[in-house]
Amino acid sequence: MEPFRTLTGIAAALPMANLDTDQIMPKQYLRGVDRHTGLAEGFLHDLRFAAPGVPRPGFVLNRAPWTQAKILVTGPNYGCGSSREHAVWGMRQLGLGCVIGSSFGGIFADNCTRNGVPAIALPVQEVERLLALAGDPARCEMTVDLEQQVIVTPGDGRTLRFPFDPLKKHMLLKGLDAVGATMEYAQDIRAFEQGYFSAQPWLA
User: Fold this and answer.
1) Nearest to 71 by CA among 148, 154, 141
2) How many domains does the chain contain in total?
3) Is the pLDDT of residue 83 over 90?
4) Domain range for residue 18?
């Protein structure tokens, strides 16, 4: 997994509340288990397309400049519902590398971390400010700096500090999934095993 440090790009506004993972990645796209290919089309499919291959021209991700969006600013409780990790895989495959909102489904947020995507939770008033900027094609570029924990918005000349879980931050900065984070303690684990089985050899 690639480390995440900073991301600068166009932000798209998706203010709908309670968008669940069934809507983010419909069931017909769950047949495969490839996190790198084949799921970009499925991301928000029924919102983006009127029929297979027929984009809805009014949907934000189908309109310039947001067709090139790298950051998604969402409504509350984004990613609620089932635990399907494909929702994050599809988001990444479409080119979205960070999601910002006032709240997220817990499993969805964990899946984001495990796939190199910061899910940044902010107070509602700050999300509303970012949604307004993201909805303006002249002011929609933002920078997310995870190391400094700031979001820079040139459109209104502001810099916003945000809280972030230290363990998730470490995993994202290092490009670690749950297994990789555990393996950072491999030497300690082996030392414990050796000591444990030396003291209780009948268990080896």
Assistant:
1) 141
2) 1
3) no
4) 6-203
